[in-house]
Every structure is written in structure tokens, then in C-alpha cells.
Amino acid sequence: MNASRQQEETNTKALSGAEVLLRVLVEQEVEVVFGYPGGAVLPIYDALFRQNRIRHILVRHEQAAVHAAEAYARSTGKVGVVLVTSGPGATNAVTGLVDALMDSIPLICLSGQVPTALIGNDAFQEADTTGITRPATKHNYLVKRPSDLAPIVREAFEVASGGRPGPVLIDLPKDITVGNAPLPTSGEGRLHRRYAPRLDADADAIKQTIAAMKRAKRPLFYTGGGIINSGPKASEGLRELARRTGVPVTSTLMGLGAFPTTDKQFLGMLGMHGSYEANLATHGCDLLIALGSRFDDRVTGRVDAFSPNSFKVHADIDPAQINKIIKIDVPLLGDVGRTIEALLQAWDGEGQDLSPWWAQIEGWRALDSLGFQQDMSPEAIIRPQYAVRRLYEMTQRLGRDTFVTTEVGQHQMWAAQHFQFDKPNRWLTSGGLGTMGYGLPAAVGAQIAHPDALVIDIAGEASTLMNIQELGTIAQYRLPVKLFILNNRYMGMVRQWQELLHGSRYSQSYSEALPDFIRLAEAFHGTGLRATNVGELDGVIEKMLAHDGPVVADICVAQDENCFPMIPSGAPHNEMLLGPDQEANAAKITQEGMMLV
Amino acid sequence: MAQDIQNAVIAVLIENESGALARVVGLFSGRGYNIESLTVSAVDAERKLSRITVVTSGTEMVIAQIKAQLARLIPVHGVCDLTATGPHVAREMALVKVVSHGETRTEGMRIADAFRAHIVDTTSGSFVFELTGSTEKLDAFVELMRPLGLAEVSRTGIAAIGRGPQTFYSNQESF
Ligand SMILES: Cc1ncc(C[n+]2csc(CCOP(=O)(O)OP(=O)(O)O)c2C)c(N)n1
Asked: Do you know which Pfam families this protein is assigned to (chain B) (predicted)?
């Protein structure tokens, strides 16, 4: 052992594992930890108390800690950090971990564990956390030796953020955090082979893609959350690439904002509740370039009828995404931002004339598939789509940086369809897992990360009740979060499927015994507002936006509204349902669409 | 599109740490992939590596998925599809217990001899044979022993390695 190393060991001898842990978190530039205490993590909480570099946000439920950290991560581009206790603390975090895994969110979850000597003895608050979370994480660790602590934490950050990002759990037995632990010099003591995903796509594949782009008469970019994960440069690159090639752009739910949704070249979202033009373009294109998207079944619908006549290029950092569902002609394995950069460099501007393609697209667009009827008399019932549009328009006037989170259900789809996002990282929703109860804690995370921004959770009343306790967190930290509930008194999305597929037998989907949301807000030291008709809507939104504290706005909307357009599951993209009274109409339009594609 | 089900013998080098095998097995069960045989043992004490040989089946796309999914597990050092990278040898070992007397006893010994099975335990009324070879050879042996008093079988599953001077690392696919 050399002298300096020895010196360092003596210097750090007095540090407990918990202190070493916090030092490594500081070294990893962690500023905020979302968590909930318990016996197994008390040493860490004690160490937190005795420092002021890392801020701890006390949530009311561990699931919420994970969602808050997810939104923190997605809205900042940093790694989110969660701290939970052993047993029930860790099991409560599982839903959040799977959510982060499905949506590729970089996260570190630190869980307490009973002392090493008690592991496997059914000790109080013991759970096989690494066993339970193995399929719920990108990777997980059980720290068994004090000397492993720092290297594991460092490696965990690398794994969480490298390649396709994801959640990593570190299980920390209490004796590890209580006992002394050495703090190795930076970078030392990596446990695994260097985790080094490939960043640059194959040059030959880039060439083939460019050749395909030159040949294509009906090309389409199908963009996903990978572009947002890759960082702001990827979004900038995409805008540039779209502008220079004139290729239309469609996006997944997770990709919204990577390309401005207000741009003329944007066709709207594709998939189950995507726009008519996006889905018919997907069906009819001759070149489909998937950029950081993973061919989710909500996007592809019937796999054998998905974009049947296109040459397919897929850019993704995760080799396991390529050819997973759809056969790909050219894989571009690497960071999607760098891939876009490479495509930009190789593109010399000589493509086909795309004006016939655009004419076709404009034809589809003219149908205005996201249109809806709103009776404008003051007493009229509020259509949920209209409420979202007004919310968007009125927030626009403020010119503030705005973050939107959602719960899961019809309101989520209406938010995706009718709120506009011109920047990446502003749209925070649970795409892969579809977790009700995501939005409110996510709003906490986004507001902590961006204290001056406007943060709105567009919610359904049923989802709201899944993590309603987070109004407590919002009150404690005086977060001016706006909870905008589209209250249809139904689990609307369930109701819609029951209507379409189960003969309108609304089994258990009516939200009975709802709380009075105004008094609920007040009980949590916030402000409650309600709009029951069109005449009241703008006033409520205005008050909500003007108030600088937390607001719960109960927007009572049409109870029987369905979310259209819609590809009924199992149908191809050119067989969309366009609206309630359009089932017959849909057939006609579909035929028309078929002729065009 | 060709949807033919094919077999694949895949070798995986993996960090020898607790939970590593569970990750691999969990991947197969969680994603509904088939496991026909799975063997694992430490092969490199110095670098703390274990080698897993897994025999699986699926369409070409599924097998490509399995390999990509395996490769992205953090403790995995490498994945090599022995079926795809050239000829390989695959061997399995079986311990076969036969309980018999008289005529059948001699018949059992004769067959064992023909299969080059070793007798590793014997009493006046029983044998334990040890037999190494291809899965088919082991299957055939077990079938022949069945009428002769087959009482118990223990098999290791397949261990496989590529033929010739090529090694795991030179044959490994890059992901
Ligand atoms: C945790 C969880 N449980 C169940 C579901 C199934 N689910 C999807 S949407 C939905 C209804 C949501 O109702 P609400 O929050 O009122 O939103 P709406 O559809 O009415 O806008 C349900 C139960 C889910 N996505 N998540």
C-alpha cells in the first residue's frame, strides 16, 4: 500500500458507511433525494441530518418517492435518487421501479436492509428486496462488504444513466451503513467490466439509411422517448433533420416535445389514440425511420399489418429493441442524438420530391380527427378536450416554462392530444406501465427540480385518489403544484372499453363516494376550485394560474365522452374509429384512406 | 416470413456472484423463453467467471432477442451462439440407476458395455451407470434400460464448446 493511499485510509477511517454513501452521492452531483425513513435507514437519515449538501424531500408513500424522482430525472436530465427503508418501504417502491424501467428513466433506489447477519432469517421488516426487484430494475446490488459500498454506488450511477437508462437498486444492510467504510479514490474499484454501450451507429448503416432516404417518396420519422433521454441536443438535431429533409414527423406518447407539436411538419401522435394523419402516414409510408422508439404495442396495433410496405430503419441504443417486434431492414445501434448528428452530416439535400406525399397527408389532416363539438353556451357541459385546450391556451398567455404531468386514463390521452409541447422534458407521463397515481408525485418531483416553473398535473378523479396523500408533501414544501382534475365520475378509460367491448355493462367503473375535492384541498392547506359548466371554466383556470400556492381544480366534465380517434385493439392503423357517430363514417373514410395509401 | 422454430446452444460468460444465475433464469421465465437445458459452473477462479450453457428454441427473431437480452445483463461478460458460429461439441452426463436381478441384470451390463457406460456403484440387486455423450445417446440408453429395471435418472444438462482453435471470445457476437 503506498503512502498516499494509507494516508487516505487513515483520513477516512472515522467515516461510517452512511457518511461514505452521502459523500459518493455528492460526488455524483446529487442534490435531492426523495424518501421515507424507517429503522433500517436511520443511520442514513442521521447522516443526512448532519450535512447540508443534499436536500431530502419527505414524501408520504414510497411509490410517490419513485415517481417524484422519475419526474425530477426526466425534467432535468439528471439521475433521480430515492431512499426507502427495508421490507414495506422497498416493496412500496416496486411499482415506481417498474414504471421507471418501462420508460427508461435513470434512477437510483437506495433501500435499507436488515443487518447482514439477519438476512434470510425472516427478521422484522425483512424482504428479499434484490429478489423482488430483480425484474423491476435494470440492475440491483446487495452490498455485503463495507469496501464495496463506494464502488457499487459509483457503478450504479453509471449503469442507471448509461445506454438505455433505467432504475438501479442498491440494498444496504444496516451494519454496512452503521459500520466504518473506506472511501476509495475516485474511479477506483469498479466491480464489473466497464459498462460501455455502443454510442456510434455503424457507418455503413448510416450510408444505407441515407440511400433509403434519397429513394423514399413517402418517408416518415417515428420518434420516441429515446430522443428525450439522449438529451436536448438530440431534439435540436431532430428539428434540423426534419427541416432539412422535409420529412414529416410523428411521435410516441413518450416522445412528445422532442419535436415541436405545433410545427407544420408534426403529424401528431401515432398509435391507439394517435391522429388520423399520423396513423395513415405510418400505414402508407415507404420509409419508416424509428428514432429512439421501441414499437410498443400501443403504437403498432396489429403487428403483421404495421406499416406493411415500408423499408424500416431503427435507431436505438439498446440492441434488445432491434427486431423485437417488427423486422428491421437497417439497425442504427447507438445513441440516437449521435445517430441524428451522423445523418445530418451525411445528408446532402438530394431527396425525392415530397410534395405528393405532403398533399396526401394534408388530405388526411383536413379531416381534423382531433376535432370535437363544444356547445359554448355558459350553462353547457364541459367537454374534457375543451378543458385541456383552454388550459393550454391560457397557460400560453403566461409565457411561463410549463411542465405537465398526467395520471393514466382518458385525460392522459386528451392531454397528449390537446396540450402542446414545443420543448423536450416538459411532458411527464407514465407511458410503458400506465401507472395511475403517477401524476401527482411526478408533479412534486418536477416542481422541486424547477421551483419557478408552472407545474400542472392533468388528472382523472380516480387516478387522483391513488396517491392523494402527496398533497401533504405539496403542503409541506409549499409547492405551487396545480392539480387539474377532469372529473367525469368514471374510470373513464375503463368505461370506454366497457362501452365498446362489453355491451356498456359498466362493471365497477363508476367512481362512487368521491370526496369533495375543494374541501380535500383545504384539508391539505391548499386551495380548491370547481367548474361545473362552460361559463365557469375560464374563471377557474385563471384563478388557478394566478394563485401562487397549490390548487386543486375540480373540472366537472361530460361523463360519457370517449377518447377518439382510436384504433380498436387488433386492428391495423388504417382502420381507425374517428368518433362516436362515425363508426359507419369510419368505414367510409377508411376506404378513402385505403385508396390514398 | 420464416417462422421456423430452431434450436440454439448459447454459451454465456457471467460474473460469478450471487444472484447472477437468478438473473439469467428470471430473464427466460419472465419473458417466456424456452429453456431445454441449462448448466452452470465456475470456469475461471481468477477472474471469477462462470460459464452457462443454455439450450433454447424459438424463431430466428426470438433467438436474436434472447442473445441481446442476455448480453445486456450487467454481470454478463459475453454471449456466444455456438449453433451460429460453427461446429461445436455438446456433451451431457447421466447417472442411471437400474434395479434388477438375473437375466435382466446381465442384459443391462451388456448394453452398458456397448454404450461405454461406467459402473460407478453396484450391489447384488442394483447398478448405477455413468454415461457421457450427446443428449440423443443418453436418451437411447435410458430407453433401453427402462424394461430392465430403470429406477432413477440424474442428468447434468448440456455443456458445449466450439470446435477448432476459435475461442469463446473470438466467436462472441458483438452487440
Ligand atoms: C394502478 C393502476 N390500476 C389500474 C389501472 C387500469 N386503468 C387504466 S385507466 C383507468 C381509469 C382511470 O380513471 P380516471 O383516473 O378517472 O381517468 P379517466 O380515464 O376518467 O380520465 C384504470 C382503472 C391502471 N392503469 N393503473
From this structure: ACT_AHAS_ss (PF22629), ALS_ss_C (PF10369)
